[in-house]
Amino acid sequence: MDDATLRAHLRRFGLSEKEVDTYLTLLEHGEATASTIADVAGVSKRYVYSVSETLADRGFVQVADHAVPTTIRALPPDEVVDELIRDAESILPALETRYTRTEPSGDQFEVVKSRVTVLKRLRSFISEADEELILSVPVGLLDELADSLQAARDRGLLVVLLVSGAHELPPEATRLASVSRVWSETMPTMLTVDHQVGIVAPIGMLSSAHSDTQAIVFAQKHLGPVIVASFFGNYWPVAREAAVAEPAELPVEYENFRHTIFQATLWLRADATLTAHIEGRTTADNEPVDRSCRVVSVTQGLIEPTNNSFPVEHSLTVDSGGETYTVGGYGAFLETIEADRVRLAFED
User: Is the same domain home to 115 and 233?
Assistant: First the structure.
C-alpha cells in the first residue's frame, strides 16, 4: 500500500492530517520523546502532547507520562487493528436496531426485451444528457445513433465512444465523440449518462430483431460509476484510439471532472500554461475549497498515451502559492481536494 492510500485509510478512522503525521512518525521510531516527534513531524511539542493523548484514547499509542522526559510508544499495529475491529463489532447490534430497511423504488431498473425499445432508450438518454455520456456500441448501430451523438457533441458534452466489431472507425464517425476507440471484437452495448442512468445490453441483442436476451435499463446514481469502471477497466484499454477532438476554447467551466481532465490534457500537450479555479472541499477534513491554481500535470486514462495507475484514476496536480495539491472528482479520497466545479483558463 502506498503512502497516500495509507494516509487516506487512517483519516477514515477520524485522524486529522497532523495526527496522521504524528502517528506515522511514532511508528517509524517505535518510542520517542515529545521533542523528537515534534522535530520530525514539524509540529509543536505542546501539540504532540495533545495529539498523543488523543491517539492513546483511541488505542494507537501508549504515553509514559510518569517518565522524565515523557515518552510516547506506538502500540503494535496488530493490536491496534484488533482493537478497531472489536470496536466496530461492538456497535453493530446498536446500529442494526436503529436501521430501517427499505426496498429500492420500482423505477430504478427496467428489463427490456425489445430491440426497438432499447434503441429508443439509447437515443432518449443521449438526447437528455447534460454533461457526459460513455458509450460502447456495435459498428452496425452507429448510423442509428449518429444524429443523437452529434447533437450531444454540439451541446458541449464529453462523449467517450467505443465502437466494437470494427478494425477502423467509419470516416463519417470521427466527429461524433470527444475521443473514440475501436475494437475488432464484439462486446456488450453499454451507456452511462451523467453518472446516473444507463443501459447494458448483451452481445447479440441489438444485432437481431429476434434475440431472446434482455437488456437492463437503470436509473441509479451509485450504479453508474460501477458500469463506468467496467468500461474503462475491461474494454477501453484493449481498444485502439481512433479519433480525438480538438480542445475547446478557453476559458471553460465544468462540473464533470472527466471533461476537465480531457481538456486539460489536450491543452497541456499543446504546451499551454493553464490555471484552474477549483470549487470543492478537502478530502482530509471536508473544509471548503475555493482557489485558483496553476495546473502542473494531469493523470488520466482517456487519451493515449495514458499515465494512470488504475482505470478510473483521473486527477489534476496543481500548484497554489508554492504548495502542490492533487485534485480528483466526485468521491475522491486519494487526492487532496474533491472538486465540484473547475474553471480552466490560460495563465495571464
Answer: yes
